[in-house]
Specification:
The structure holds three protein chains of three kinds. Chain A is an all-alpha fold. Helix content of chain A is about 70%, strand content about 0%. Chain A has one domain: Formate dehydrogenase/DMSO reductase domain (Formate dehydrogenase/DMSO reductase fold). In chain A, helix 2 crosses helix 5, helix 2 packs across helix 13 and helix 9 crosses helix 11. The longest helix of chain A has about 35 residues. A three-stranded antiparallel beta sheet of chain C has the order 1-3-2, with no helix packed on it. Chain C has five domains: about 30 residues, no CATH class; about 60 residues, Helix Hairpins (Orthogonal Bundle); about 160 residues, no CATH class; about 60 residues, no CATH class; about 45 residues, no CATH class. Chain C is mainly α. Helix content of chain C is about 45%, strand content about 0%. In chain C, a hairpin with a 4-residue loop joins strand 2 and strand 3. Classes of the chains: A mainly alpha, B alpha+beta, C mainly alpha. Chains B and C meet through helix 3, strand 2, strand 4, strand 5 and helix 6 of B and helix 2 and helix 8 of C.
Chain lengths: ~375, ~250, ~425
């Protein structure tokens, strides 16, 4: 956007990382967050999280399967995507992506498989025809199911849950590190970015679990496990506070230090990002859930209202995390490296990297989750855990 | 029967040998086309550098046009461009680069009587010694050649755009048609044949200079020894090789 | 072991996938990757073979030698051909032959000759950001100054692109000269005080500091100056301390302003029709390019434009004989023979009186050339019907002559008794 008082370098008129790159950390954030929540049950033995432990794993898997899709759509040459594993240049933060993703995928698949093995074997034995064939492949043909196998499975689940936490952190954290280490970008460059992304990922993971948990139970007209919901909502409140404080601290430290970039970043915050950052991300979708969750966590309210408020808050936090990714990724590219102006971005509606495609990418993991419920039923039917 | 087999065998042997000989002739003939390139050890003798003299540039844009034609640069993307800085008597500054100055500049931004200082600054890839774009490429498509020119392997690049983000000088872009990253190559195909890069060739004012920094007798070395120069964004540690004479503090 | 079977199967499956992946990777990995670093080395060679498009000035000069020499001498010496004519790769390929030249059509190989208006203005449009000593014009101001009435006039109607200012000496060899300034180089309007009266003003040279008389003469002109010293003397800076300057005097340069053109105002500045201004316009192409100065030199700095400069003093008619006799070629610088005849055919010189017939033989014998000024080489023949003086073998030849032409012609000079000296 070249106005008399604004200057961007000629190559900056078009931004390179579009809404696809906004979606990618969003999805991997939910992957990492959900996995970590499930690991809290498996590794740290928090019994209250048992009802959602398996659900967390399955949703982690379904999001993970789609995590690479926005990247593939964004790549200029997606057919060469495997170059990243063929000839990785390890000086790059992005080079580990292929290996970490594959490794993590194996871990999550293993976790899900081990957690559901009993049910799968049962299904295999009771089904017929084509379904039986599919199940046979899934259980790898082995129907041994006894105390010993269960013990081994459980041990392995705990082991990989523990092992998976740092891997999940790397899978999502490297994105934050990637952004934070780009010294050329005025908005992104900070050592805190890695931490911010991880905490924000945990928030989104918790939020999506709570949101879906309540939504599915509401759909099926089942009663939720109140203890587990209360615990998760308190954690959501806690992590959300930490995440928002970290985000604000980052901006505060730039504002206080007043180095050269603050002049133009101030204009960014008060100008192009005023609506999406100041009003929406911080104003509505951070302060709002904070107040709601404070109320639900600290005060006694009627359960029905409480659960509804928690559900609203988790939905709002889902939007907050998405907005945070948008403001970081897009916002950082709107400001010119010349420190003299801003450019514009609208993703377009029907373009290859437009809004319709983004919508589809966000929705499909949820649809896949619905499909997974048939194979990996995540909530015990007719069972209400006390 | 045996004789027939022997005859067939001998025929087969002769034809296949002939085939191999003819085939290898073609295979090696292709290799001859490669002989025009310099060998790795020859390349090690060079370290290409660039000087921009901002006091001499007149903003004609001939460099931008020449580069576009030489390297088939797509519209609205630039491997090199010219910026204009105008400072008025209230110390306000206006910077612009209309379409990268490909059609030069049409009018003053401030009214002419108010301008106290104004100049043009050509910009291009700085071919940094520690370029962040080479560091961040995940597939090794962005690299330093043996003669320290930062190049892009168009056959290997996946188009992720990380290098475009990492460049502090905004000299890289994604070529929408080809799907790969692209930037100034220092006219690598010209410098090794003794020709100047297209932009240096086109400049009517000697505002651009290039040369081998490893050669103490080269013009670029001599100018660097005589004049004071600055680097863009030196604090970022990229160690750029594009030296700006008369670098004003307003130039970022 | 049976209890661990499922684990083992799982990890075996994973291992097989990894092995397949590694093998596939090794097969598809580019060959030259990693040879000299974390990149595909063949890319370096591929890039070196990219097609060259922009031609350099030396390549153009191989065929266009004359234009090149003209171009190298004048102010545009640093402007490469490609800036105005385009890259020229198809053109050189077409004309040099070699592979691929057959695919190029003549139309494709043709290069643009005449640059559109905007092309000149890319460099020469007046902008504050350009160095102040770079020649730049605001089109409207420039045309107003030159009294060009048609705003669509192209630059090349006056300025030849290869010879924009018609320099006589090579642009790079012009005399070195300290940097000179005019007040308006830095100041928007001419200040009232002289810079010497302003304490702390940077020390600058002005023309008058060394050339005071010339500047005084120049400033005494009867109307305000539109040109200053540097306009004609084409001063240009080379660096912070020095520049180059020309005395100048090329007629073509003077004609930039002073030649009548259809797109220029009739009246001002005074303009001439070059072909009829002097008797012999071919002089310029023969080598004396400073033809205007031959007549106008005294008056250039003092020139009052209303007075036409006349190189001859007022009594020229009576005194020009000696000059003409001594060195006619000086007259021929401006005049043709026709101009001599226009006076001398109608009016004979004073010496040719009634007695001339008798007297001229002595004068003619002494200095024939003065006769030849008017009478041309065969001037004697028209009366004498033979070479004058008589050729050496006249004794033998006059017999034939008399038998053809009779004695009457001899009687023009010789009396009848003259023949009896021999006969």
């Amino acid at each position: 956007m070249q106005t008399p008082d604004s200057f961007v370098f000629p190559n900056e008129l078009h931004i390179t990382w579009t809404v696809m790159i906004v979606l990618y950390p969003y999805i991997t954030g939910m992957v990492a967050g959900a996995f970590i929540v499930s690991s809290f049950y498996h590794v740290f033995g928090m019994e209250k999280l048992k009802p959602i432990a398996r659900f967390a794993l399955v949703s982690s898997l379904s999001f993970l399967l789609f995590a690479a899709v926005p990247l593939l759509i964004h790549l200029g040459k997606p057919e060469r995507a495997f170059n990243i594993m063929l000839t990785p240049s390890f000086s790059s933060a992005m080079s580990g992506f292929g290996f970490v993703y594959t490794f993590y995928l194996i871990i999550v698949i293993l976790e899900v498989w081990l957690s559901y093995r009993r049910d799968l074997i049962e299904k295999y034995l009771t089904s017929k025809g084509f379904a039986k064939f599919i199940y046979k492949i899934i259980i790898l043909g082995d129907v041994t199911n006894n105390e010993e196998t269960r013990r081994i499975d459980k041990k392995l689940v705990i082991f990989f849950a523990a092992f998976g936490i740092p891997v999940a952190c790397i899978l999502h954290g490297y994105v934050g590190f990637l952004f934070g280490s780009i010294k050329a970008n005025l908005w992104w460059s900070t050592p805190l970015m890695f931490i911010i992304f991880i905490f924000s990922a945990i928030v989104s993971g918790l939020a999506v679990l709570i949101f879906l948990y309540q939504f599915v139970h509401w759909l099926r007209k089942k009663k939720v496990n109140q203890d587990s919901l209360d615990l998760m909502s308190k954690w959501l409140w806690g992590f959300m506070i930490i995440a928002v404080i970290l985000e604000l601290m980052e901006v505060l430290s730039i504002a206080y230090e007043r180095t050269e970039r603050w002049a133009v970043l101030q204009q960014l915050i008060n100008g192009k990002l005023q609506f999406t950052y100041v009003i929406l991300q911080i104003g509505v979708f951070s302060i709002g859930p904070f107040l709601i969750l404070t109320v639900t966590s600290l005060f006694k309210i009627k359960t029905k209202i409480r659960n509804f408020l928690i559900w609203c808050a988790s939905g709002m936090l889902l939007i907050q995390v998405l907005l945070m990714r948008w403001n970081v990724v897009i916002g950082g590219q709107l400001v010119s490296k010349s420190m003299r102006g801003f450019t514009e971005y609208f993703p377009g509606i029907f373009e290859k990297e437009g809004l319709v495609v983004s919508f589809i990418i966000i929705i499909i993991p949820f649809l896949l989750l619905k499909f997974f419920d048939k194979i990996f039923p995540f909530f015990e039917k007719n069972k209400i855990n006390s | 029967m045996e004789k027939m087999e022997r005859r067939q065998f001998i025929k087969l042997g002769i034809f296949s040998t002939a085939g191999v000989l003819i085939g290898s002739f073609f295979a090696f003939a292709d290799n001859e086309k490669k002989l025009e390139v310099k060998s790795y050890n020859d390349l090690l003798n060079y370290d290409w550098g660039y000087i921009v003299d901002t006091s001499r540039c007149i903003g004609c844009g001939a460099c931008v046009r020449a580069c576009k034609m030489e390297n088939n640069v797509p519209d609205n993307y630039f491997r090199t461009w010219v910026e204009r800085y105008e400072i008025n008597k209230d110390e306000k500054i206006r910077v612009d680069s209309p379409k990268g100055a490909i059609e030069s500049f049409k009018e003053n931004n401030f009214p002419a009587s108010e301008i106290v200082k104004a100049f043009f600054v050509p910009k291009l890839c700085n071919h940094c010694y520690d370029s962040p774009c080479v560091q961040v490429c995940p597939v090794g498509a962005s690299y330093h050649s043996p003669d320290k020119v930062v190049l892009i392997d168009k056959e290997h690049c996946v188009g992720c755009g990380y290098c475009v983000q990492a460049c502090p000088y905004s000299c890289r872009y994604i070529n929408q048609e080809k799907g790969t990253a692209d930037k100034c190559t220092f006219c690598y195909h010209r410098i090794h044949k003794g020709l100047a890069p297209a932009c240096v060739n086109a400049c009517p004012r000697n505002a651009r200079l290039y040369g081998n920094l490893k050669d103490p007798e080269s013009k670029i070395r001599k100018v660097l020894n005589q004049r004071k120069y600055g680097l863009l964004k030196a604090e970022l540690g990229t160690n750029p090789k594009c030296y700006y004479l008369e670098l004003d503090m307003e130039i970022k | 072991m049976k209890n661990k079977k499922h684990i083992i199967i799982f990890f075996c499956v994973v291992l097989i996938i990894i092995i397949i992946g590694v093998i596939a990777g090794k097969i598809t990995r580019p060959k030259s990757y990693g040879e000299h670093g974390n990149y595909r080395y063949n890319a370096v060679e591929e890039l070196q073979n990219q097609k060259i498009i922009n031609q350099d000035i030396i390549t153009c000069s191989e065929c266009h030698k004359e234009i090149y020499q003209l171009h190298e001498k004048d102010a545009h010496y640093n402007v490469p051909c490609v800036d105005c004519h385009g890259p020229g790769d198809l053109h050189t390929q077409y004309h040099q032959g070699g592979e691929g030249s057959g695919n190029i059509s003549k139309e494709q190989a043709a290069m643009q000759k005449e640059y559109k208006f905007e092309g000149c203005l890319y460099c020469h449009r007046k902008l504050k950001a350009k160095p102040f000593d770079f020649p730049q014009v605001d089109k409207n101001e420039h045309y107003k100054f030159l009294n060009v009435t048609n705003p669509e006039t192209k630059c090349i109607e006056c300025h030849s692109p290869h010879e924009p200012v018609f320099l006589l000496t090579d642009a790079r060899q012009a005399r070195l000269h300290p940097v000179v300034y005019k007040c308006t180089d830095c100041h928007e309007q001419k200040p009232e005080k002289s810079h010497r009266d302003v304490p702390g003003h940077p020390s600058i040279f002005e023309c008058r500091d060394c050339h005071s008389q010339v500047v005084k003469d120049f400033n005494d002109r009867s109307h305000h100056n539109y040109v200053d010293c540097r306009t004609c003397h084409l001063y240009h800076r080379e660096n912070e301390t020095t520049g180059r300057i020309y005395k100048n005097g090329n007629a073509k340069f003077c004609l930039l302003c002073h030649e009548k053109k259809p797109f220029k105002d009739e009246k001002y500045p005074p303009k001439i029709e070059w072909s009829t201004h002097i008797g012999n316009p071919d002089i310029v192409s023969k080598g004396d390019a400073k033809i205007c100065l031959n007549c106008h030199v005294d008056k250039i700095h003092k020139m009052d434009l209303l007075v036409k400069a006349d190189p001859h003093p007022e009594n020229w008619k009576s005194i020009h004989r000696e000059t003409a006799r001594q060195n006619l070629s000086v007259c021929m610088n401006c005049h043709t023979m026709n101009q001599c005849y226009s006076c001398h055919m109608k009016n004979k010189p004073a010496s040719h009186n009634f007695n001339w017939r008798k007297q001229h033989s002595k004068i003619a014998a002494g200095n024939k050339s003065s006769c030849e000024i008017c009478h041309r080489k065969d001037g004697c023949f028209s009366c004498h019907k033979t070479e004058m003086p008589h050729p050496k073998d006249w004794q033998e030849k006059h017999k034939d002559f008399i038998s053809k032409n009779g004695k009457t012609i001899c009687n023009n000079c010789h009396k009848e008794e003259f023949c009896k000296q021999c006969h």
